[in-house]
Amino acid sequence: MIPALLIWLYKKYASRILKTKYLTRFRRASSAAALLLIPVLAAASPSSAQDLRLSYQVIHKGSVIGQMQFHRKVSGTNTYFNLKSDIKTRFVMPINIVTTDQAHFSKGRLQLSAVCRTVNGQEKESKKTVFRNNTYELSNGSKLRQLETEIGYTMMMLYCREPAQLGQVYSDNYQQFLPIKRLAAHTYRVNLPGGNYNDYQFEGGTCTKVTVHHDWYTITMELI
Asked: What is the dihedral of CA 203, 178, 116, 55, to 10 degrees?
């Protein structure tokens, strides 16, 4: 899920910097396949009988650069998730990144998830995972493919349900399963494609802090 120096931003503005001594660093950053705030996350136990709202502040180098809101709504055997982040940063020019992640679970199985990102008011990315005819249809722009593995735990779920004894999590953004590793009591790591990773800390089953580790930056999301 998800804020700050998104990879495509490097691609968009690299031409303005190629003549500087930082050419090598920006080429390397342009090839990295990571969205900064992956938002990251969506699903909870269908047996939960109450709604849940969580607020996080996004911090980079000691400064708050944005906010993130998480909402889980339970209705019978259906659970709905919404995660929205609003980040303001600067890369050559001011950048406002808004990310919205939505998901619907029925009886513990993912039915639909959608990821949308806009930058300065323009849509830059839209991905969907839809359960249809006993399989998942994955769309990324005009690209379509299928996934037959059942999805019962996604990255949005990491905000409201500790992944105890789970070995993997489905990423709505990367549209694939990612490994989860327990680092310590109530602390877990999700390894991302490209060698980057996110660390999640929990208290009472709720995620209180996410640390996003990237080659060129570290971002934290802390529960308010």
From this structure: 10
